[in-house]
Amino acid sequence: MIDEVYNFNLNYVVETIKESRAQTVGLQFPDGFKRKAIGIAEEIEKRTDTRVLISANPCFGACDVDTWLSGAVDILFHFGHAEIPEIGAHVPNTIFIEAESRIDPVPVVEKAVFEIEAGVAATATATASAAAGSFVCSVGLVSTVQFVHTLPRVQRYLAEHGIRGVIKSGDSRIAHPGLVLGCNFSAVPDCDLHLYIGTGDFHALGVAIATKKQVIIADPVMCEVRRPDVDKVLRQRCAAIERSLGAQSFGILVSTRPGQCRKELAFDLRETGLAHGLDAHILIADMVTPEVLLPFSVDFFVNTACPRIAIDDAMRYPVPMLTPAEFAVAIGEMKWEDLVFDEIT
């Protein structure tokens, strides 16, 4: 077994290669799975008559397919993300392997029940069941692709404890009910609060900012319950906006990667900036990094590529990095209290 925690579905990968009679195979992984890449490549080459190429490029999502590699091989297997339907037209030979987790979520959800009851008790919509004397509330269940298949099991467990778990389908970018992306929260239901099953804090943070509701993180890997630090991030975003006030020039960042390229939005932002007397320039890049932007002398950037660039990586840049909505706040076209999380829909 390649991995005891995540299912890389190698039997399916091998059968697909054999059926297609592929001669060259590409593999792409997010950074957290790259340590498995060589072992998976060796297993594929041992079981098939193919040559395997591994993408060493960073990969942050299903929108981040290595298009050069997909054009250089017969089949590209993209591990760790669910397919975004609109990406398929750009990379028709790419197969997405979701790498589901084998970890049972119930032990950490059991810990989360106390946090859920405490959180909902503080909301105006929480009610008590007079008949049974049990606690009744609605909790939106969300996750990333590694754990989204566990949400029905979590829903059943919560029901046994008088908690109504709600799982919602998202828009056309969302492959599974309850799935959240770093740039899309359309599968987040309107509930008293939300329970995020997964690792890391970024997706839970996005849900909290997008819904302005409480979010509890139940991390099955760490078996830990915690909350995202929303106030800290909002303070950082407010500071970035304030540093942009009075600026004279800005760069609008556009990614060439499928699923991230929002050039029409960039054109609109440029026109808005020009109307406010700002010097505005559109900058195109495959991957947005501080090194790529270093030669460009502007007072701040507005990011239309992956929203994580402005949220997770903002401190790496020498000038403020704003989202489109934050730009609207900076130029006075939106109020701070109306700020929304940047989503790609």
Total of helices: 11
The proportion of residues forming helix, as a percent range, comes to 25-40%
CATH architecture of the largest domain: 3-Layer(aba) Sandwich
Radius of gyration, whole Å: 22 Å
Tally of distinct domains: 3
Provide the β-strand percentage band: 15-25%
Can you walk me through this structure?
This protein has 345 residues and is of the alpha/beta class. It has 3 domains: 6-101, Diphthamide synthesis DPH1/DPH2 domain 1 (Rossmann fold, 3-Layer(aba) Sandwich); 106-228, Diphthamide synthesis DPH1/DPH2 domain 2 (Rossmann fold); 231-338, Rossmann fold (3-Layer(aba) Sandwich), CATH 3.40.50. Helix content is 31%, strand content 20%. The protein is built from 11 helices and 16 strands. It has helices at 10-20, 37-47, 67-72, 106-121, 151-159, 202-211, 230-244, 263-275, 290-293, 308-311, 324-330; strands at 6-7, 24-28, 51-54, 75-79, 94-97, 100-101, 127-128, 135-143, 163-166, 193-197, 215-219, 224-226, 249-255, 279-285, 300-303, 321-322. Strands 7, 8, 9, 10, 11 and 12 form a 6-stranded mixed sheet that branches. A 4-stranded parallel sheet has the order 3-2-4-5. The protein has a 4-stranded parallel sheet with strand order 14-13-15-16. Strand 2 (24-28), helix 2 (37-47) and strand 3 (51-54) form a beta-alpha-beta unit. The two termini are 37 Å apart.
Short description:
The chain is an alpha/beta fold and 345 residues long. The protein folds into three domains: 96 residues, Rossmann fold (3-Layer(aba) Sandwich); 123 residues, Rossmann fold (3-Layer(aba) Sandwich); 108 residues, 3-Layer(aba) Sandwich (Rossmann fold), CATH 3.40.50.
